Amino acid sequence: MGSPPMIDGAFARWLAARAGQALVGLRTEMGFADPGALRSAGDKVSHDLIRTELAKWRPGDAVLSEEDEGSRLAWAAEVNAGTVSRLTADRVWIVDPLDGTREFAEEGRSDWAVHVALWARNAPAPHGLVAGAVALPAQHRVLATDYPPAYPPMTLESATSGAGRVIRLAVSRSRPPVFLTDLAEDVGAHLVPMGSAGAKIAAVVTGDVDAYIHAGGQYEWDSAAPVAVATATGLHASRIDGSALKYNEADPRLPDLLVCRKDLASRLLAALQRHSG
Q1: Which residue has the higher pLDDT, 169 or 178?
Q2: 54, 55, 156, 209: most buried by Cβ count inside 10 Å?
């Protein structure tokens, strides 16, 4: 793919696409007979590629990757000692080399992704994200902040149902929050199970669904790149209590979020207050 562009949003797009190409090739090479081996190889191949390119082209930046050893730890003691470089860095790449490993290892599934996001200390937005890209390699597309998609049109159900329109709500196919069935009945929503968080937020960005709610536990790399793209597109993104999403925190856990059309945000946040406990 040649030398990467130097502008961060375009670089994120280039890097996510490059990792995605490697993952598609790995799928073809290994096949699906041993899903466990394919998942492990996918994580390693994409992580190694992304880490190598970041070291080459962004050597002064810190990195938080899902596949880094100890990435899930909350660095309380180390923060006090000042030994965690990303917490004092001005720029941190937050990456998920393979979001949706389960789906990646299932033949025919396309709801898996590669996430590449950049957090900056001087960012104007509360979440601190200044660039991001979500590659959906099996769908042959990359969504990124250098050329963010247009604000999504309403779904067919939304457009034809007026004020009482049906909201299409993306949820985890394997671990949806238990309260979502009641919430969906409350707001008149249809639940749409999907794989990776990146694929679900991408579906909101493209208008295939109207919202995505998650409350089952995630980490920063699960949502950083998709949230960067979603907010660049003009969508609402927050915690389920309405507070701001924050990245490059000492504790990388970011357990819940809401991404939706702005016209649905107040309605969904009110319903979440009633049902999420």
Answers
A1: 169
A2: 209
